[in-house]
Write a structure and sequence with these properties.
The protein is α+β, with helices and mostly antiparallel strands and 63 residues long. It is 19% helix and 49% strand.
Length: 63
């Protein structure tokens, strides 16, 4: 899925949902989807924000 298609998909299906995001390697990012704009996914967990470049995402799923 291209980046331009991924952003509206995330907003439509995962906004305000708690998800896990896999970008490769050993790390999986977790948190509530707070925003997805300008090709950046923003997750919030325990008051801290993680910003992930959409083009680096390999897989996402509900936690």
């Amino acid at each position: 899925m291209e980046v331009k298609e991924m952003q509206p998909f995330i907003v439509e299906h995962y906004l305000d949902e708690v998800i896990d995001v896999y970008c490769g390697g050993p790390d999986i990012f977790s948190g509530k989807v707070k925003a997805c704009a300008d090709n950046v996914l923003t997750l919030e967990k325990e008051g801290k924000y993680t910003h992930i470049a959409i083009d680096k995402i390999i897989a996402i799923w509900r936690a």
